[in-house]
Amino acid sequence: MIFLIGGTIYGRARDNEPEQYEDLNLIASGALFNPEEYTIMRPRGKVFLDAHYIVSTVGGLYGRLDPERAARMLKNHLMPLKVKTAVIDR
């Protein structure tokens, strides 16, 4: 799993325009596993967009105080990002 987090990410997604997500897809696809570069360890899996720092806020101290509610908040505020990759799952 990969999380794209923070202010720069928010700057790219704030207007919710499709072309803004192209840059985010490029960043995320470069971070995911690529079978052509199999010697470089990278994760396979889903990519989530966190433009409002919810992971650091909710996942930190609040996650220790009320983990179930923190998990629900993360599920509600993290946006799954569809990334085009060359990964072939076998």
Specify the overall morphology.
Answer: globular
Helical content stands at 40-55%
* Count of distinct structural domains: 1
Mean pLDDT: 80
- Put simply, the count of helices is 4
Strand residue percentage: 5-15%
Task: Describe the protein's architecture and organization.
By secondary structure, the protein is of the alpha+beta class. The protein contains four helices and three strands. It has helices at 7-13, 18-31, 54-65, 67-77, and strands at 2-5, 47-50, 79-81. Strands 1-2-3 form a three-stranded mixed sheet. Helix 3 runs antiparallel to helix 4. The longest helix is centred in the N-terminal third of the chain and has 14 residues, at 18-31. The protein starts with a strand and ends in a 9-residue tail after the last strand. The relative contact order is 0.23.
Summarize, please.
By secondary structure, the chain is of the alpha+beta class.
Protein topology:
Blueprint: E1 2-5, H1 7-13, H2 18-31, E2 47-50, H3 54-65, H4 67-77, E3 79-81
Parallel strand pairs: 1-2
Antiparallel strand pairs: 2-3
Helix pairs in contact: 3-4
